[in-house]
Amino acid sequence: MSAQPDHVPVPPYAPAPGAPAELLAQLRADRRAERWVPAFEQEWTQALEESRRTFSLAALYEVVHVWQARVASAPAVDAFLASGRDETSFVDLEEIRSRRR
């Protein structure tokens, strides 16, 4: 039997204790720091409040995992944007869903 409720998503592993600080240092060194640092800090603050309220670290772990994935995928996104691929024919998924209703 688990001590956590079933509805709380738990990431597959806990990040290292210093992971949030290391991640913030990476974000500050990135060229997107002007946008990414405030966004990370806002999400971290919200997760911290949720953690205090629920006595669970899951929200904090999730923020770290999501931002680690964003940082890791940034070079691929940059390469895609630099390739000059045309995105003008993009269709919003919500628009497609609304047509089906």
Structural notes for this entry:
The protein has helices at residues 19-29, 33-54, 58-82, 93-100. Helix content is 65%, strand content 0%. The protein has four helices and no strands. 9% of the residues are buried. The termini are far apart. It has 101 residues and is mainly α.
Write down the overall mean pLDDT: 83
User: Roughly what fraction of the amino acids lie in strands?
Assistant: under 5%
**Main pleated sheet:** none
| Total count of helical runs of at least 4 residues | 4
Number of strands: 0
Helix content: 55-70%
Radius of gyration: 18 Å
Give the helices and strands as they follow along the chain. HHHH
Shape: extended
Distance between the amino and carboxyl termini: 41 Å
Segments where pLDDT lies below 50 for 5+ residues?
none
Could you give a quick summary of the protein structure above?
The chain has 101 residues and is mainly alpha-helical.
Spell out the key features of this protein.
single chain, 101 residues, mainly alpha, 0% strand, extended
Describe the secondary structure blueprint for this structure.
Layout: H1 19-29, H2 33-54, H3 58-82, H4 93-100
Helix pairs in contact: 1-2, 1-3, 2-3
